[in-house]
């Protein structure tokens, strides 16, 4: 079997015209992203030995206590992407406002990232990840927060790295989804999954059941029917998984199908869900659609939401198309 590493793969993409085709600047960007994530992975691998576990004692703009690794991963990505020569600015879960690369407003790309996804799992040695979304720089002067407020369907690349039993990078440029596994000895990512596909049907769902009492009626009805199993209206048994790292839960959906939900609920009407549109929901929705799945906020396609704020939240329902469409229909008839 011939071995294709990430660089080989990116080179082939530069020869494609149109869908899935990329330029030399994108190659540099993705190589830098992969290399930084390889270093983040090495830190995670050492854990307590590297003294990187536990809280940083600070809060981010969303009022979450930052873990040391949230801050370390964020700083590593900011530094390495600024040095690529192709990134004009970055925005992150861990920054109040965007971080323009001073004097480089004419560079072609903007990057949004969730540097460390699944923070609550860091200290318990459960899979975590990094999520990223690449946008074209609108190149209309200074880089401000507004420069990043582009709908998800304009993304030119999206991906994540999952730090699990294996470290894997999953990537799309708008022509299918490709998975790479980190070979630590060779210090490179190797292509291990081509054109990943999410099955239309599934018997597996992911939701944080502890929020059940807060859900709106359509979500209550949908989950209740799944839980009734074979003797209920769905006529089959469903299994449940909740890792509490979006990257790991979505990776499972991309690998063996499923539906993943983090719906808005009745607790705080000013918070439409927990997950963030720009650096969690949008990149994951791009990947899911490219793998033949569906992604919505229970009412509309996530990739069509016009963003108003860097850190805005949204409901997320994604994965196997027939299940996601059922959730949509329950909301339409409510
Ligand atoms: P982050 O660690 O980047 O703040 O994201 C956490 C998110 C997401 O990864 C996961 O799906 C969800 O929070 C878990 O929420 P619960 O704590 O409600 O399970
Ligand atoms: Mn967080
Ligand atoms: Mn996250
Ligand atoms: Mn995070």
UniProtKB/TrEMBL annotation:
Cofactor: Mg(2+)
Pathways involved: Carbohydrate biosynthesis
Binding site residues for Mg(2+) 1: 93, 114, 116
InterPro entries, A to Z: FBPase_C_dom, FBPase_class-1, FBPase_N, FBPtase
Binding site for substrate: 117-120, 208, 274
Enzymatic reactions: beta-D-fructose 1,6-bisphosphate + H2O = beta-D-fructose 6-phosphate + phosphate
Top-level taxon of origin: Bacteria
UniProt cofactor note: Binds 2 magnesium ions per subunit.
Positions bound to Mg(2+) 2: 114, 117, 280
EC code(s) of this entry: 3.1.3.11
Fructose-1-6-bisphosphatase class I N-terminal domain residues: 25-193
Residues in Fructose-1-6-bisphosphatase class 1 C-terminal domain copies: 198-331
Subcellular location: Cytoplasm
Keywords for the protein's UniProt record, in alphabetical order: Carbohydrate metabolism, Cytoplasm, Hydrolase, Magnesium, Metal-binding
Family: Belongs to the FBPase class 1 family.
Summary of subunit composition and partner proteins: Homotetramer.
Protein name: Fructose-1,6-bisphosphatase class 1
Organism name: Limnobacter litoralis
Gene: fbp
């Amino acid at each position: 079997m011939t071995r294709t590493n990430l660089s080989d793969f990116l080179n082939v993409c530069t020869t494609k015209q149109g869908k899935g085709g990329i330029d030399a600047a994108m190659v540099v960007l993705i190589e830098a992203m992969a290399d930084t994530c390889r270093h983040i992975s090495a830190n995670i691998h050492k854990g307590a030995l590297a003294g990187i576990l536990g809280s940083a004692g600070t809060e981010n703009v969303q009022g979450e206590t930052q873990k040391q690794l949230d801050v370390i991963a964020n700083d590593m990505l900011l530094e390495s992407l600024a040095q690529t020569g192709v990134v004009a600015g970055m925005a992150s879960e861990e920054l109040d406002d965007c971080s323009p690369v001073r004097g480089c407003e004419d560079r072609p790309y903007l990057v949004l990232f969730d540097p460390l996804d699944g923070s609550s799992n860091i200290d318990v040695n459960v899979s975590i990840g990094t999520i990223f979304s690449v946008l074209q720089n609108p190149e209309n002067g200074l880089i401000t927060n507004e420069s990043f407020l582009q709908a998800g369907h304009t993304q030119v690349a999206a991906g994540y790295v999952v730090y699990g039993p294996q470290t894997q990078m999953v990537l799309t440029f708008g022509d299918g989804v490709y998975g790479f596994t980190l070979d630590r000895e060779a210090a490179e990512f190797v292509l291990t999954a081509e054109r990943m596909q999410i099955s239309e049907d599934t018997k597996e769902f992911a939701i944080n059941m502890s929020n059940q009492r807060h859900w709106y009626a359509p979500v209550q009805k949908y989950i209740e029917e799944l839980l009734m199993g074979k003797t209920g209206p769905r006529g089959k048994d469903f299994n449940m998984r909740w890792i509490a790292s979006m990257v790991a839960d979505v990776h499972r959906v991309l690998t063996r199908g499923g539906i993943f939900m983090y719906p808005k609920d009745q607790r705080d009407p000013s918070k439409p869900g927990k997950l963030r549109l720009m650096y969690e929901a949008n990149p994951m929705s791009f990947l899911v659609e490219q793998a033949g799945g569906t992604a919505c906020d229970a009412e509309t396609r996530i990739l069509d939401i016009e963003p108003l704020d860097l850190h805005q939240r949204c409901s997320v329902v994604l994965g196997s198309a027939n299940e996601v469409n059922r959730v949509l229909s329950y909301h339409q008839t409510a």
